[in-house]
């Protein structure tokens, strides 16, 4: 018999080492290394075992067996691909209070309205507390079953008794596998619980949605293998100062992994927002200097947003640069390009640049809008409200092409914009909207800020 040997594993992150250490070298946790007895494997060849079912040709397998069923929430189905696939396991992670439970209660209610049974398992609240939230959001339906359990074996028993087609587990960190070592919510427990629920989904065809926590850095809490065990990983994001919520695909075996769904948190629940572009625009009756409109791509979804800029004189030797919703380093670079390439002097004034509605613009395609917004406030001449600006600005003052210009311009056209300033040579541009192709900032500023009777000298 092989002689057993000992290894050491971190209970927080699962890191293994050959000897005991006081601090885990992977996650930095103190006192989290435990001794684990393992058996030495004998070096021998493997023996072939007759399979229980023979392998079949791929052409003989019915693809409709894995067809997705819509949840009834269009924005959620958009991120999932087409809906929930039977036998799949979905991990929905997000910060506390962002609305994960509220969204999933709405999902099971829409699922029940289609004549299908659903089971909602909660390990964080009592059944009465979940019912109270369901009453407030209008998510009560007789085909929605509730179970307040944290023991994994009991949860499996509920699934066998109720026989649902959709099961929610809120949350995976609160479930306890009695036959597994480790503390509740630890790496070993989470891995055991997820493995058992994944096996249940594959063997019975029940679609399971796991609610997960996130770390302080915004990453999915638990071992990295958790994301490999499930079929779909979704991140539920939101700002506490805004009612807008985003469901973002991180991994998806059944569809695109870069889709985004938009929702709005209200007092009576969470509501989908099929057209979120209007949330990021400030509607006004007249043109105002210092504003520019751009179209950003969030995954595959084009969204129109507004950039605002303001300059103010200062006696300080180091003028302030305040940025909100944008990359501060890119904004600083654009200010340097404006002054160095087209002589827009901003070195002796304070500059404030922000987006509207809490929108985050991190891609380079918003560079041109930032440059035009700053140029507009310095020139004290407003850009027309019907104009959008799309493009990346280089250090030489050139306007570079970005991806998806055609889709961005088409979205601007759909929302009623009549003029688009884009990089020269952009392909697949739509018809029915005036398009000005520019090669550098000189041409972009003249196209946006100068009329036929007005000249712009730098």
UniProtKB/TrEMBL annotation:
HAMAP family named in the record: RadA_bact
Signal peptide, first to last residue: none
Keyword DNA-binding in annotation: yes
Keyword Transit peptide appears in the UniProt entry: no
SUPFAM superfamilies: P-loop containing nucleoside triphosphate hydrolases, Ribosomal protein S5 domain 2-like
Region of interest called Lon-protease-like, as start-end residue ranges on this chain: 350-458
Summary of the function given for this chain in its UniProt record: Plays a role in repairing double-strand DNA breaks, probably involving stabilizing or processing branched DNA or blocked replication forks. DNA-dependent ATPase involved in processing of recombination intermediates, plays a role in repairing DNA breaks. Stimulates the branch migration of RecA-mediated strand transfer reactions, allowing the 3' invading strand to extend heteroduplex DNA faster. Binds ssDNA in the presence of ADP but not other nucleotides, has ATPase activity that is stimulated by ssDNA and various branched DNA structures, but inhibited by SSB. Does not have RecA's homology-searching function.
Binding site for ATP: 94-101
Pfam families named in the record: AAA_25 (PF13481), ChlI (PF13541), Zn_ribbon_LapB (PF18073)
Motif (RadA KNRFG motif): 251-255
Protein name listed in UniProt: DNA repair protein RadA
UniProt-listed NCBIfam families: sms (TIGR00416)
Residue ranges occupied by any RecA family profile domain in the UniProt entry: 65-214
The record's note on its domains: The middle region has homology to RecA with ATPase motifs including the RadA KNRFG motif, while the C-terminus is homologous to Lon protease.
Family: Belongs to the RecA family. RadA subfamily.
